[in-house]
C-alpha cells in the first residue's frame, strides 16, 4: 500500500546524516531538533504553536484533557472513522456521540451533527478522512452557534488545504481550537516509528498542552495537574524535519496517482469515484473507491491473487464494536453502513511507478469486464 523503502532510498542522503547527528549528540529526548521541527511545522501550517507528542492517539487524548471536558460531557464524532478518534473520548469518561457521515466526502455530516446536539454536548471532532477535508466552515459555524470546542483530527489530512467562501485558503490542522495529527510511518508526513503533534493558535491552550504532556509539570518537579508522559523523540524529529521539506511534493505525487486512477477507472460499471469537495484540496492519504455492485470482497480477493494489496478502511461501524455498544441507541447509520460494505482503498504513495499503476488499473478492468 505504501512503498516506504523506496522513499527512504530517495531521501537517504538527507535522513542518515540527520539521524547520525542526534546519535552523536546523544540528545535523544527534547534535543534542539525537536524545537526546530515544531517551529518549522508551525511555519508550514501557518499556526502559532506545534507541540510534538508520542503519537496521534495521545494527541487526541491530551486535547480533551486540555479543554477541561468533564465526565459525562458529550463529544460528537463520526461513526465512520478509525477507532482512536472515539476511543479516547470514552477512556476519559466522556460520551462519544456517533454521527453518520456524508457519502461523497466520507466525513461527518453537519446536518446529522446538528440533530445530535444536546445540552450535554461540549465538543465536535471532525476527521479529514482519507485526506479529504471535512466541511470545516460549516462545522465552525455550528460550533459557534452551540458554544462547542472543535478538535480537528488531521492525522490523514496533513498537507491539504481548506478554501473558505471568502477566498481565504488555509492549511488543514489550523482550524480547530486544537488540532491533532499522527506521524505513523505510512502517513503523508511519517516518521520511523510512532509520533504525533498538536496544533493551536491559543497561547493558553498551548501552555496547558505542554504541561499535560509532561506529567502536568509547568516546571521540573512541580506538578500542577494530572498529566501524561507523551514526547516526540529527537530522532523522529530530525526525520520529520527532512520529510517536511518534501511534504508538498509528497502530496503532489499522491494527487497525480489519484488523478490517473480517476481517469482510467471512471465510468466502469460497479465503481463509484467520489468527487473532491469544492472547498478543499485532497491530500490522498488513501485512494478510496466504492464498489457498488456488491462484489467488494470478491474484488479484494481477486486483487490479492494478482499480488496487489488493498485495504478496507473501515469494515465495521464503530457503534457495532463491542467497546462502543454502551454509547449507541441501536439505530443504524445508513451512510456508514453502506460505506462499510462498499469501500476499498487501492495502493497510493509517493513512489508509485507508471508500470505498477498500469498493472493495478488493468487488473481492475479485467475483474469488472
Entry summary:
40% of the residues lie in helices and 14% in strands. It has helices spanning 4-25, 32-45, 56-66, 83-91, 110-116, 136-146, 203-213, 234-244, 247-265, 296-305, 334-342, 354-368, and strands spanning 49-53, 74-78, 95-99, 121-124, 149-153, 161-163, 169-171, 178-182, 196-200, 271-272, 287-291, 343-346.
If you had to describe this structure to a student in words, what would you say it looks like?
This protein is α/β, with parallel strands linked by helices and 369 residues long. It folds into two domains: 4-99 and 107-244, Aspartate Aminotransferase, domain 2 (3-Layer(aba) Sandwich), CATH 3.40.640.10; 247-368, Aspartate Aminotransferase, domain 1, CATH 3.90.1150. The protein is built from twelve helices and twelve strands. It has helices at residues 4-25, 32-45, 56-66, 83-91, 110-116, 136-146, 203-213, 234-244, 247-265, 296-305, 334-342, 354-368, and strands at 49-53, 74-78, 95-99, 121-124, 149-153, 161-163, 169-171, 178-182, 196-200, 271-272, 287-291, 343-346. The strands form three sheets. Strands 1-9-8-5-4-2-3 form a seven-stranded mixed sheet, sandwiched between helices. The chain has a three-stranded antiparallel sheet with strand order 10-11-12. The protein has a two-stranded antiparallel ribbon with strand order 6-7. A hairpin with a 5-residue loop joins β6 (161-163) and β7 (169-171). α3 crosses α7. The longest helix is centred in the first third of the chain and has 22 residues, at 4-25. The two termini are 24 Å apart. The model has no long low-confidence stretch (mean pLDDT 97).
Amino acid at each position: 500500500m505504501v512503498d516506504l523503502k523506496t522513499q527512504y532510498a530517495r531521501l537517504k542522503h538527507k535522513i542518515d546524516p540527520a539521524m547520525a547527528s542526534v546519535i552523536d549528540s546523544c540528545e535523544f529526548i527534547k534535543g534542539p531538533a525537536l524545537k526546530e521541527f515544531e517551529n518549522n511545522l508551525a511555519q508550514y501550517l501557518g499556526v502559532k504553536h506545534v507541540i510534538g507528542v508520542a503519537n496521534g492517539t495521545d494527541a487526541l487524548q491530551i486535547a480533551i484533557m486540555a479543554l477541561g471536558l468533564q465526565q459525562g460531557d458529550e463529544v460528537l464524532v463520526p461513526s465512520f472513522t478509525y477507532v482512536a478518534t472515539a476511543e479516547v473520548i470514552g477512556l476519559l469518561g466522556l460520551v462519544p456521540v456517533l454521527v453518520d457521515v456524508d457519502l461523497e466526502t466520507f466525513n461527518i455530516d453537519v446536518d446529522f451533527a446538528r440533530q445530535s446536539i444536546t445540552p450535554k454536548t461540549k465538543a465536535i471532532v471532525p476527521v479529514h478522512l482519507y485526506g479529504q477535508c471535512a466541511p470545516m466552515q460549516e462545522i465552525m459555524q455550528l460550533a459557534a452557534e452551540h458554544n462547542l470546542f472543535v478538535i480537528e483530527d488531521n492525522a490523514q489530512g496533513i498537507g491539504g488545504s481548506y478554501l473558505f467562501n471568502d477566498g481565504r485558503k488555509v492549511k488543514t490542522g489550523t482550524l480547530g481550537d486544537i488540532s491533532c495529527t499522527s506521524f505513523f510511518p505510512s502517513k503523508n508526513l511519517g516518521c520511523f516509528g510512532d509520533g504525533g503533534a498538536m496544533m493551536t493558535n491559543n497561547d493558553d491552550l498551548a501552555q496547558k498542552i505542554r504541561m499535560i504532556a509532561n506529567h502536568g509539570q509547568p516546571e521540573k518537579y512541580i506538578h500542577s495537574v494530572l498529566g501524561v508522559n507523551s514526547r516526540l523523540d529527537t530522532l523522529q524529529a530530525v526525520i520529520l524535519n527532512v520529510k517536511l521539506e518534501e511534504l508538498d511534493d509528497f502530496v503532489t505525487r499522491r494527487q497525480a496517482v489519484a488523478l490517473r486512477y480517476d481517469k482510467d477507472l471512471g465510468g466502469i460499471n460497479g465503481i463509484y469515484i467520489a468527487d473532491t469537495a469544492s472547498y478543499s484540496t485532497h491530500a490522498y492519504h488513501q485512494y478510496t473507491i466504492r464498489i457498488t455492485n456488491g462484489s467488494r470482497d470478491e474484488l479484494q480477493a481477486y486483487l490479492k491473487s494478482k499480488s496487489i494489496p488493498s485495504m478496507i478502511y473501515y469494515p465495521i461501524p464503530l457503534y457495532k464494536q463491542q467497546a462502543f455498544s454502551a454509547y449507541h441507541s441501536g439505530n443504524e447509520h445508513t451512510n456508514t453502513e453502506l460505506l462499510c460494505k462498499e469501500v476499498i482503498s487501492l495502493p497510493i504513495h509517493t513512489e508509485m511507478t507508471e508500470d505498477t499503476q498500469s498493472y493495478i488499473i488493468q487488473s481492475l478492468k479485467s475483474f469488472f469486464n
